[in-house]
Design brief:
Distance between the termini: 56 Å
Oligomer: single chain
Number of helices: 12
Structural class: alpha/beta
Shape: globular
Strand order of the largest sheet: 1-6-5-4-2-3
Order of helices and strands: HHHEHHEHEHHHHEEEHH
Length: about 290
């Protein structure tokens, strides 16, 4: 681990500031889990996590390039646009904002020395992920004094990138919540425990990941790759062979509702692909649904 990163993680004051919030965070996560168990409609017996309900939405390579170009013209990073679309798809169908967007981020090339060739080439094995939390359900939005805008998603993404470079408080919180929590390993297992010490309320939130660009050998014939995440609503996105692939899943909601969220996500993304401003897309959809 890099010396400056280790110094911040080992700072007793940083650890103390994180620890004093843990009792409330565990209570909050337990609360969201209990509400999930009481209201779940997914799974064989109504509350089991596996199997979960899921569905997909994929773009072809031409559409994916068009979306990328449209977002670039608007000065919006793809991850920010997908977070924005996911938050509003959640709200349009469930009539509430997610408590937070729970996003995984990797420390592999940011917190550790990158001189080794395997790190530069991304050819390594390790358990590097931490959970970054983006608070969405604020008091001002609950009271209808404010709404979730594209600028909010852009700001979150910018803070995420800069925070990973500087090991800010959000990254520290994600790191401590993993390494000092009851469950420490696994791609997302550490976040799903009801004793997770970070204030995620996973079962009341949007579990979101954008895994970026991935390629496979041409002989594989791959035209898409989809897999699901955890929680009340999970949206996983990845660009495989130049094609955007999105999966919407839930361990709590019935399939028809999950499909409704998928359809809303698709509508928002396709509108942005056609060059429409994200905030204007939401205003139009809300108006059309009210009529």
């Amino acid at each position: 681990m890099k010396d400056d990163v280790r110094k911040k993680f080992d700072d007793p004051l940083n650890i103390l500031l994180w620890a004093i919030r843990v009792p409330y965070n565990v209570y909050s996560n337990q609360s969201s889990l209990c509400w999930q168990k009481a209201s779940a409609e997914a799974g064989i017996d109504g509350y089991t996590e596996i199997p979960k309900e899921l569905c997909h939405f994929n773009l072809n390579d031409v559409q994916s390039k068009q979306l990328s170009a449209a977002l670039k013209n608007q000065g919006v990073a793809p991850t920010a646009a997908l977070v924005f679309a996911g938050v509003h798809a959640y709200q349009l169908v469930l009539n509430e904002l997610p408590f937070s967007v729970v996003m995984q981020a990797s420390l592999q090339t940011r917190a550790f020395e990158s001189s080794h060739p395997s790190l530069k080439e991304r050819r390594f094995v390790g358990d590097w992920l931490i959970g970054i939390l983006h608070r969405v359900r604020t008091w001002s939005r609950l009271l209808r004094l404010d709404s979730y805008k594209m600028e909010d998603a852009k700001k979150f993404y910018q803070q995420l990138i800069s925070g990973l470079k500087t090991t800010n408080a959000s990254v520290q919180d994600g790191f401590y919540s993993r390494v000092l929590g009851k469950v420490k390993g696994g791609a997302a297992t550490f976040e799903k425990t009801p004793c997770f010490p970070g204030n995620s309320r996973l079962n009341d939130s949007l579990f979101f990941n954008n895994y970026g660009i991935r390629t496979m050998h041409d002989d594989s014939g791959c035209v898409g790759f989809n897999w699901s995440g955890a929680g009340k609503v999970g949206i996983n996105c990845i660009l495989v062979q130049g094609r955007l692939c999105c999966t919407v899943a839930s361990t709590q909601l019935p399939l028809a509702t999950v499909e409704g969220i998928r359809d809303a996500l698709k509508t928002i993304i396709l509108a942005m692909m056609d060059g429409e401003d994200g905030d204007e897309v939401i205003k139009r959809i809300v108006k059309e649904r009210a009529e």
